[in-house]
Specification:
Blueprint: H1 8-18, E1 27-28, E2 33-34, H2 44-53, H3 58-74
Antiparallel strand pairs: 1-2
């Protein structure tokens, strides 16, 4: 029987992936501030949501974020 020591940080990370945040923290364009909390986007909840949504597709997440960076640059 393989009993590993309990890792609270890993358990918390697993739980966070299993349930996305309840509110949509989306960017207000062209200023790129969160519409919910007013912080620079992606704020912490948006970051967690993106990691949750793209957990099995990190390359797709990178392409998505690259597109957003290009979009943000067009607003300058």
């Amino acid at each position: 029987m393989d009993e590993r020591p309990r890792d609270p940080a890993r358990e918390h990370a697993t739980q966070a992936r299993e349930r996305p945040p309840a509110r949509e923290h989306l960017p207000a364009r062209p200023i790129w501030l969160c519409r919910v909390c007013g912080g620079p986007w992606p704020c912490s909840p948006a970051h967690r949501r993106l990691l949750h949504e793209y957990a099995d597709a990190p390359v797709t997440l990178a392409v998505h974020l690259a597109g957003l960076i290009l979009e943000a640059g067009d607003g300058c």
